[in-house]
Amino acid sequence: MADLNTLTLSELSDKLAAGECRSVDIVNDVLACIEERDGRIGAYLTLDRASALEQAQAADAARAAGACHPMLGIPVAIKDLINVKGQPCTCSSKILEGYVAPYDATVVSRLRAAGAVLLGRVNMDEFAMGSSTENAALGKTSNPWNLDHVPGGSSGGSAASVAADEAVCSLGSDTGGSIRQPAAFCGCVGVKPTYGRVSRYGLTAFASSLDQIGPISKTVRDSAILLDTICGHDPMDSSSIDLPATAFAAQLGSDPSLSGMKLGLPKEYFVEGMDPEVEKAVRDAVEHCRGLGAEIVDVSLPNAKYAIAVYYIIATAEASANLARFDGIRYGLRIDGKDPIELYGRTRAAGFGPEVKRRIILGTYVLSSGYYDAYYLKAQKVRTLIRDDFAEAFRQCDAILAPVTPTAAYRKGEKTSDPLKMYLDDILTTPINLAGNCALSVPCGFASNGMPVGLQIIGDAFNEEAILRVGHAYEQTTGWHRQRPEW
Amino acid sequence: MEYEATIGLETHIMQKTGTKMFCSCRHEYGAAPNTHVCPVCLGYPGALPVLNEKAIELCCKAGLLLGCAINPYSKWDRKNYFYPDMAKNYQISQYDQPLCLGGQLEVEVDGAMKTFAIERIHQEENAAKNTHVAGGSLVDYNRAGTALMEIVSEPCMHSAADALAYMNALKQIMQYGGISDCDQEKGQMRSDVNVSVRPVGQKELGAKVEIKNMNSFAFIEQAIGYEIDRQIAVLEGGGRVAQETRGFDADRGETFTQRTKEDAHDYRYFPEPDLMPVKISAEQVERWRAELPELPAQRRARYVSELGLPEYDAGVLTSDKAVSDWFEEAMRHTDNAKAVSNFIMGEMLRLLSGQGTAISESQVTPEKLAAIIALIDAKTISTSAGKQVFEIVFNEGGDPKTIVEAKGMAQVSDDSALEGWADEAIANNPKSVEEYKAGKQGAINFLMGQVMKASKGKANPGAVMQMLKQKLDA
Amino acid sequence: MSNATQGMDVGYVAHLARLELTAEETALFQGQLDQILHYVEQLNALDVAGVEPTAHAIPVYNVFRPDEVGRSLDHDDVIANAPSAANGQFRVPKIIDQ
Ligand SMILES: [Mg+2]
Ligand SMILES: [Zn+2]
User: Fold this and answer.
1) Most buried residue, A318, A445, C26, C34, by CB count within 10 Å?
2) Best mutation site among C13, C38, C77, C78 for testing chain A: the one with the most A CBs within 10 Å?
3) Which CATH code, of 1.20.1250.20, 3.30.2130.30, 2.170.8.10, 3.90.1300.10, is assigned to A4-262?
4) Phi, psi at residue A454, to the nearest 5°?
């Protein structure tokens, strides 16, 4: 094995361009790694080896014919809630049993157009509801750094596949932290783009006003390449914003200086109950950035502490409607009944897991007659306050530094019995989805149990350029991202 | 005790768009089941709606035709309920910020003009079509997601006649405006009817009964009549009318309980995150207003004031847009409005109803009718010959002038020929001549008839009359 | 939000959401959801008078598509996904008018 699977996207891209390897070689190494490791990791739900190799051959042929794109021939793992024509899209749920997507999500069309290899479908929390990939009906995923630990979630399969070198990069989705948190738990880079930056068409909706697709990769540059490939205006998604084409990867230079940049430090983000090891790693990273020339300024996000309450009202309310379509009529699982009402009740009882049911009930309740104003409308108003906080903070700085999670990856089963406790872990990621702006997670050290810690770099809406620049500078001058789990 | 009924209508009208409300599937009636469907209108995972610009325009134009204000800011909401004909199990609709607000409809009911207030018009999407078969139902999503607007009246009507007049006027306006064909057979116009009854003088309205999804005007009339009687009977009997949804059994002409207030839906409306709000500028509204076609009432007034037609004619001509459009077209080829009107109201409508065809398909085109009228006005043919030509063209087609020539229908105004027939008639009917001379003016008509008979109808009646008078008065 | 302390009728709400729950599930969710609703009550402390609600994080307006026919799905693919079909249609238990 030439171990091409251990290289970064940009390294492979250079090798392909220089003719030093073929896409088929990369895919073969990745497939061999999956063969060897995935029994332990459980990242993949479906993998079509023959199709992956065919796509690789096609990419090699295209390159021979003069095509070039940084993603040409690069294998990508896709979170199993993004529709790929002709493939199942299970969302890790029994309710989508038998469903074959008849269309490509816009991000998938863009990957295809770039010549990327669609490698396979990776595990997640059911309908992206969860933070540990333990709410998955079709298989469990382990953290490559310690198989007894969770990979985070909901994009746990995406992060684990990249961390285990079973994929060069992957696509995840982030509704309340579902890219950044597993990226942090698995020692990867993950970006939650600004709402409206990446088309949601073909992304099975959890909470429509919060969901964004984004990259999980080995380096910041890799994420920038992937982001350049998938973002851009899409007329099929009304929330997609029409902006000029991006060149995030091209803007990343080799000079790691951060001089001239103001980085905000929100005092409210070092919350009670935070693991001191996580806090120390993040504070060290802040000092490191100061050392690179950045000016560190105090900012305040006073309403961020309400984010969990607001998030679990808005996200569940939207989800209760979004998941109503899974009813056993047009596709997926059906458990018959004497009338449609009985059919619905039985199908949904058998098809959804407990966390999904819990959230659907909560979301249905907060919208129901007599409660809308007290819950949903109130939450939307507090959402405005949270947005305003960020807007004010970004008047004082170019990006905000913070932890991604209060703790590093924990042991499997540790939090499954207490949903509220699990929800509270999203306190540092959900405010960004509520405000709609962007953030990335980059490795910044390890806890004493050997699990990675992530630094969250938060940017203003449509200022991915700033967070990628800070992340790239940090990464170039530290070695955290180069550490790999041992096998 | 005296009772008063109060009626409000929620009328759903399918707009004339080429594609559905939120996806680019073709909007077509009668296609093979589930052939005009896509991830969006089937509610597939990951699919997203996008607003059809044309539908918004048609909804706003409908609003302008009904005197509504166009809401400068409107938004989209999800209305949640599980039903097999609703692919997403929520309907995208407009809850608190509809496209059109206010408005009114002026209609004639039993000879009196009444104004019915419109509360709002909102845009939403249609449901799929269910058919019931042995042991189950089948769902065809071709209609799912087509553009549907809901026109909500104030509870301002008081009889079945009011409701019927309102619906007829609404239909006429929507057809005139090119908003919808309102073909009830195709489900393009359906109404939910709200009926309540209260003792005269009571301030608050009685309990509201809703009769859902009615497409036939005749059934609506029956259902309202039945429901008013039923509710009065309940009140007379000392009972309370239950607030509920009732269905209409067309065979028995009765309404029946469908859903009581207790199991009413909880729709859990909330703003649709997948669709952006719509802002409509005053300039846009004015551009749309300038494009609006003339409405029946405006046309009627113009026919009277500018074309000098009697009110009655103007009313008949404008009651159907197709007829009125045909009339307008004919007026581009002739100045004789009354003659066109007479032909339409007489020959045309009679022959059409006998054949059951539409005026637009008639072999008598507006141009050909103008040609027939020109022949009459030039006195080439008599009016009765003109009617014959009309009927020939209607049944067999052909050019009026050629027909007149081929059949020798041109009338005779030539004095020598007329004189011969006149002399003959006077000579052969001394009794009539005597009567006329004795002062019985009408006796001349008999002589006139004799001349027409002798000429086989070709004599110019005006010239004949003149000649007879000349000879008898001499 | 004062109603929240009375707790939610999980059975009723689950029916609204068309979820048939077992007695065990109902009991488990009841406790968990009451706890979550209690947590959410912290929003009571905030005065939001005069604050506009946020429905869309990035506000844009007037996103339309032209009324042009595009591609529909292949009928066979559509029916292939149906759990039950007849005559090219989706088959369901007898629908009773609601
Ligand atoms: Mg409606
Ligand atoms: Zn469609």
Assistant:
1) A318
2) C13
3) 3.90.1300.10
4) -110, 145
